[in-house]
Amino acid sequence: MSPSHPVLADLPGVWRRTLAREADGSTDRVTDAVWIQGPSIFADLRQPPGLPDLVGDAHPSELDRPLLLALCEQKAFAGTLSADDGAFGWLRRIDLHPPAALPDAGTLRWQDGVLVEEGVHEDYLEHWEPVERGGTAAVLLEDPAEGSTGLLVRAGSWFGYARDRSGPLPAPLVPLREQVLGCADRAAAAALLDCEVSIGRVHADQVGGERWEILRSTLPHRVGSHLQPELGGAGDGLLIRDTDPQRRPRPRAWRPARLEGPSTLLTITAAPC
C-alpha cells in the first residue's frame, strides 16, 4: 500500500461507501453502495435505503409503474478500472443508466485508513472503507445466443455479477426514469430495466460444496437465488443460473472473453463424492 496514494494493485477487494458529497454540497450516508474490485474488472451497486422492502422479490414485469420508477433510483455499473497519471478511470461496459456526458474518473488517496475519491470531471467526494481482502479473479463474458455482455468478479468471499440488456437503450441521451415514464405499457418499461448487477457471497454448504448467494441486485427477483457458476460441457464456457421473463430457471451459457486471475476462483467448488 502506498503511503498516501494507492496504485491499481492496492485496490482489489470489497469496498463499502460511507459518505458521498455532491457538487451542491449535499451529503449521503445512507445509500447501500458496494464496490467489488478485481485485478481490473469491477462491479458497483448503489441502492437507496428501503428499496428492497418496497419492491420485495418481484420480477420487474410484475411491478406497477411507481415501483418501476423506484428501481430507476438505483445506480449500478460494471466494467474495467485503469490508472493514468495519478487518476483512475472506471470504464462502464455495463450500466443500468444511459451513459454520462463525462467520463467516470477520480483521484484516490488514503486518509486514516479510508479511501477518499474525488472527481476529476465532476465535483464530488466519496469515502470508501475496506470490507474484505482475499484472492481475486474476474472474467469478461459474451453471450453469443443473445448478444449481451457480462462479467463476473470475485474478491475473497464476495462476488459481483453483471449482465447487460440484450439491446441498447432506445434513447441513450434520455434519463432512464423519463424513458420508463414514456413507455406505453408495463412490459416495455420492465424491458428497459432488464440489466442485472448483483452482489453476493460465497458460502460453504452442508455437504462440502459452495453456494453463491445473491444478496443485492438491480433485479429484485434475483435476491436469494444462487448463481452457481460452473464450466460448460466442453470446458471452454461458463454456465450461470438465470431466469427467463416468466421467472423459470434456465442456465445462461457465457463465453469468456478476458480472464484475470485464477479461473478456479470463478466456479463453484463441488461437494466431495
- Cα-atom radius of gyration: 18 Å
Q: Helical stretch count?
A: 4
* Oligomerization category of the chains in this entry: single chain
The topology string of helices and strands comes to EEEEHHEEEEEEEEHHEEEEE
* Stretches with pLDDT under 50, minimum 5 residues: none
Return the structural class. Answer: mainly beta
Largest beta-sheet details = 8 strands, antiparallel, barrel
Report, as a whole number of angstroms, the end-to-end distance. 42 Å
Helix content: under 10%
* Large-scale geometry: globular
What amount of the residues lies in strands?
A: 35-45%
Mean pLDDT level:
93
Q: What is the tally of beta strands?
A: 17
Largest beta sheet: strand ordering: 1-3-4-5-6-7-8-9
Give a structural overview.
9% of the residues lie in helices and 44% in strands. The chain has an eight-stranded antiparallel β-barrel. It has an eight-stranded antiparallel beta sheet with strand order 14-13-12-11-10-17-16-15, with no helix packed on it. The chain has helices spanning 51-55, 65-71, 176-181, 186-192, and strands at residues 13-21, 27-28, 32-37, 41-47, 75-84, 87-95, 105-111, 114-119, 125-132, 136-142, 149-155, 158-163, 196-204, 210-217, 230-231, 238-243, 249-260. The chain is mainly beta and 273 residues long. Strand 8 and strand 9 (125-132) form a beta hairpin. The longest helix is centred in the N-terminal third of the chain and has 7 residues, at 65-71.
